[in-house]
């Protein structure tokens, strides 16, 4: 399925899916100016050459299904598309394809807030063989529910898109991996895809040693009618940047509305400080299937305020995640990288990038 000339079959037609046509070639621009460049030129019909190198074409291995569109063979991955994180998205996609045994069986589902022809052109020119669909997030619904958090980036509607994936994607997509844009995968994604959810709606690495109470305010813990939501379960922290989701169960049991109800409470009573994570914890903590920690070595972006350097956790690594304020492409470009940022650099497709351990 080549997106350049792909015509969606009738069973996948969906009002929020957008397919557009590509423009031209390669371009070089200072990376910190790239988001402004994208916004300034997105409305024009003739674009300058594009700023990312073309990724190679990845082929299925001999053990892959000869019919990649079958339900069992296809791997569905959802990510968001945003000018500020586009460089991270490109690196994440490259890492997934590069380490996949069956890359032609992977379909990406990208969510954005508006039709941006230049962003679409960059995706198509960077990954001309990529199987992908595009969906527009209806921001009016979520904007009315968003409360101000400790970092502006956490307040953007796209940060909440993961809540509505089951509503946006076609019903034929029954299972999904959701991934943030600030990570790279260094293992075969099919291993994560085969996670046994055991009747759970969601699977993710969880951390029961974390101070769970710190994710909510004193107001929340002082009101029994709110804090009693965790009675009968052992709640543990999990990071929502890497999740395996059963979309059928999510739709059937109305999880989008369950998460939204806690966002309404937040607007009235200020029961947490972060963005979309706490309402996920309120609904699902203690109710998910645990995945090995190697699938989310998170927190490498530091805390949400200063973004100081952090090292890797002990143990095996299948996915490296720069959650937190600090992003590897910004730290590398500023010549003030953390040591873990060099794990991200090999997947950077930005044309002007020249990172080395000697810098």
UniProtKB/TrEMBL annotation:
Membrane topology label: Single-pass type II membrane protein
EC number: 2.4.1.-
Keywords associated with the record: Glycoprotein, Glycosyltransferase, Membrane, Signal-anchor, Transferase, Transmembrane, Transmembrane helix
Superkingdom of origin organism: Eukaryota
One GO CC term, this protein: Golgi apparatus
UniProt KW Glycosyltransferase keyword: yes
Pathway: Glycan metabolism; pectin biosynthesis
GO molecular function, one term: glycosyltransferase activity
Top EC class for this record: transferase
Subcellular location: Endomembrane system
Family: Belongs to the glycosyltransferase 8 family.
Stated name of the protein: Hexosyltransferase
Organism: Perilla frutescens var. hirtella
């Amino acid at each position: 399925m080549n997106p350049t000339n792909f015509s969606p079959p009738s069973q996948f037609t969906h009002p929020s899916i957008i397919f557009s046509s590509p423009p031209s070639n390669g371009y070089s621009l200072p990376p910190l100016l790239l988001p402004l460049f994208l916004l300034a030129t997105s409305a024009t019909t003739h674009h300058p050459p594009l700023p990312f190198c073309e990724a190679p074409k990845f082929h299925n291995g001999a053990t892959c299904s000869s019919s990649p569109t079958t339900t069992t063979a296809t791997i569905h991955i959802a990510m968001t598309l945003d000018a500020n994180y586009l460089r991270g998205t490109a690196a994440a996609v490259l890492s997934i394809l590069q380490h996949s045994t069956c890359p032609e069986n992977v379909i990406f589902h990208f969510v954005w807030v508006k039709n941006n022809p230049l962003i679409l052109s960059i995706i198509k020119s960077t990954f001309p063989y990529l199987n992908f669909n595009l969906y527009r997030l209806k921001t009016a619904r979520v904007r009315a529910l968003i409360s101000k958090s400790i970092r502006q980036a956490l307040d953007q509607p796209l940060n909440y898109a993961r809540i509505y994936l089951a509503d946006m994607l076609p019903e034929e997509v029954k299972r999904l991996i959701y991934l943030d844009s600030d990570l790279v995968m260094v293992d075969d994604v099919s291993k994560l895809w085969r996670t046994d959810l055991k009747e759970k709606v969601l699977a993710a690495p969880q951390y029961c040693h974390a101070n769970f109470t710190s994710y909510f305010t004193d107001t929340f813990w002082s009101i029994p009618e709110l804090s009693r939501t965790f009675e009968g379960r052992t709640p543990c922290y999990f990071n929502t940047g890497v999740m395996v989701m059963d979309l059928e169960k999510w739709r059937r049991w109305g999880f989008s509305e369950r998460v939204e109800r806690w966002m309404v409470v937040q607007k009235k009573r200020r029961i947490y400080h972060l963005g979309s994570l706490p309402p996920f914890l309120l609904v699902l903590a203690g109710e998910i299937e645990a995945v090995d920690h190697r699938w989310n070595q998170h927190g490498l972006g530091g805390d949400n305020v200063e973004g100081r350097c952090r090292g890797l956790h002990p143990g095996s690594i299948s996915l490296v995640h720069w959650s937190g304020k600090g992003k590897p492409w910004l730290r590398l470009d500023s010549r003030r990288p953390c040591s873990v940022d060099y794990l991200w650099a090999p997947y950077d497709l930005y044309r002007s990038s020249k990172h080395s351990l000697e810098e």
